[in-house]
Amino acid sequence: MKIAMLARNPSLYSHKRLKAVAEARGHQLDVINTLRCTMNITSHRPSILYNGEPLGAYDAVIPRIGASITQYGLAVLRQFEMMGVWSLNESVAIGRSRDKLRSMQIFAKHGLGLPVTAFAHDPRQTDEVLKIVGGAPVVIKLLEGTQGIGVVLGDTARSAKSVIEAFRGANVNILVQEFIKEAGNSDIRVFVIGGKVVAAMMRTGTKDDFRSNLHRGGSAKTIKITPEERSTAIRAARVMGLNVAGVDLLRANHGPVIMEVNSSPGLEGLEGATGLDVAARIIEFIEKNAKVGATKTKGKG
């Protein structure tokens, strides 16, 4: 099988692991820099040029699109889909997961557990937003943020109001969420492949940081999740339309709540904490499911 992986940095742990596992199983995996792709979208036969040369045919594509190039990356992925190449995660599903507001609305529609969340355009509605989420402390998130970047804790009503008004005054879109105090500075990353949980870990942030991101100094350990947490993670990935997803949960007093769903979850922390070969499970899923023209949306939607 010939596999393309859309990724800008081939030296990242996750990308090296996927390439090594694919090649060990007899496949060819080419790492393609997303930004070096040029799309021919005027022809009756859509095509992609890579570094100025026509890109050959592929059986499958693994999108590892960074948040900073989401729009262009999805355009390239749609082009692959229009060419009939099967995608591990489809462009429409990734687009949903990258839009925090849309994601939350979809989860709410399907009755999945969420922190109380508010969104408003006018900074003059700050008091109303804070009232909706139950007052300070609150978590303030940029809609475009990722890996803990653009996530701020408003400890008091005064500080929360200042942060919200500053962001909205700069015309930056944000979400405001209740702070799940009982979760402390820990969350759970559940890795879902093909509608099944294959691994889970608990991430704990440093003593002075409420965020649990590993690249910010947090630690991780393997954990046994509850049936409700398992069900929530599987349903979250399904309603997003993602074959592979990292679902981040908090343990609230009223049950698991979803923080976000990552369409390009990293493997390093998870494999290190659990000792499981998650990369092999991803390649196995591709082997079983990749078929020419089997993309559901074919770049539409």
Q: How many separate domains make up the residues?
A: 3
Strand order of the largest sheet: 14-13-12-15-16
From the alpha carbons, calculate the radius of gyration and give it in angstroms.
Answer: 20 Å
| Main sheet attributes: strand count, strand direction, barrel closure | 5 strands, antiparallel
List the uncertain runs. none
N-to-C order of helices and strands: EHEEEEEHEHHEHEEHEEEEHEEHH
Q: Give the count of helical stretches.
A: 9
Number of strands: 16
Distance from first to last alpha carbon? 28 Å
CATH architecture classification name of the largest domain = 2-Layer Sandwich
Provide the helix percentage.
25-40%
Q: Work out the strand percent.
A: 25-35%
User: What's the CATH topology name of the largest domain?
Assistant: D-amino Acid Aminotransferase, Chain A, domain 1
Overall pLDDT confidence:
89
Overall CATH class of the largest domain: Alpha Beta
Full CATH superfamily name of the largest domain: ATP-grasp fold, B domain
Structural class: alpha+beta
Q: What best-fitting shape do the alpha-carbon axes yield?
A: globular
